[in-house]
Specification:
By secondary structure, this protein is α+β, with helices and mostly antiparallel strands. The chain has a single domain, classed as NADH Oxidase (3-Layer(aba) Sandwich). Helices cover 42% and strands 12% of the residues. It is built from 8 helices and 4 strands. It has helices at 4-15, 32-42, 62-83, 89-97, 118-126, 129-141, 156-163, 193-196; strands spanning 54-59, 103-109, 144-145, 170-179. The two termini are 28 Å apart. The protein binds flavin mononucleotide. Flavin mononucleotide (FMN) binds at residues 18-19, 91, 94, 147-151, 188. Residues 18-19, 91, 94, 147-151, 188 line the site of flavin mononucleotide.
């Protein structure tokens, strides 16, 4: 049974798992045992028909991180130019030091992509992304900060070439992770539940 203390700490982790891009200790490596502990928690997530198709590829080698950081920067530049967006200061800060990040954690699906059918895609990504999010939460609970990033998924082939990822594997998110340093984590401003929740039919906000 949960105690009120459990509830408070679980709720705190869930509501303060903010992106941490700069308040990180770039000089402190992640302990592989802690990473494995977090992955053991993450893989308690739901898993669909492809059955535990998640794979976690942790990149700590400097040369590889440098190449991947250049790719990431290219995609970010392209993405912002195409959409006429400004790169936010926190994004700039991450890009500037991405090659120094203690670990880049790629969460991959070790199953052939199912094609365009919506239900198949929902099942495919739904079998992997909950584990990725649980991993981010397990990190957060251990003072390891990260950010949910998907920009590199636009460069599947180049990333695969750097990391020897087989052709059938699909890369999803990449979590740049490191121990937090002076990060102040707070609840984000998000629309309140009653504005995004419907009961028994679209647009009907009256609960039972
Ligand atoms: C699908 C998805 C992809 C994202 N990709 C990136 C990314 O590649 N790089 C990045 O800096 N932020 C990315 N973000 C944004 C951050 O993960 C984060 O959600 C955003 O900065 C808001 O910060 P907060 O989670 O602390 O409120 C992405 C978010 C989502 C949901």
């Amino acid at each position: 049974m949960n105690t009120p203390n459990d509830l408070a700490s679980v709720d705190r982790v869930l509501s303060t798992a903010r992106s941490v891009r700069r308040k990180l200790d770039f000089d402190r490596p992640l302990d592989p045992a802690v990473v494995h502990e977090c992955i053991d928690i993450a893989t308690q997530a739901p898993t669909g028909a492809a059955g535990e198709s998640w794979r976690f590829l942790i990149v700590t080698e400097e040369g590889k991180k440098r190449v991947l950081s250049r790719l990431y920067t290219d995609v970010l530049d392209q993405f912002t130019a195409q959409r006429g967006l400004q790169i936010k200061p926190t994004q700039k800060a991450l890009v500037a030091r991405l090659h120094e990040i203690p670990a880049m954690v790629f969460v991959c699906a070790n199953a052939p992509h199912p094609g365009p059918e919506i239900a198949a895609q929902v099942a495919y990504y739904g079998s992997v992304l909950p584990a990725a999010w649980s991993l981010m939460l397990a990190f957060r609970a251990r003072h390891i900060g990260s950010t949910w990033t998907t920009l590199l998924s636009a460069r599947q082939r180049e990333v695969a070439a750097v990391l020897d990822i087989p052709d059938h594997v699909v890369q999803t998110v990449m979590l740049p992770a490191g121990y937090m340093k002076d990060a102040r984590l707070h609840r984000a401003e998000r629309a309140a539940a009653h504005t995004v929740t419907f009961w028994n039919g679209w647009d009907s906000r009256d609960g039972p």
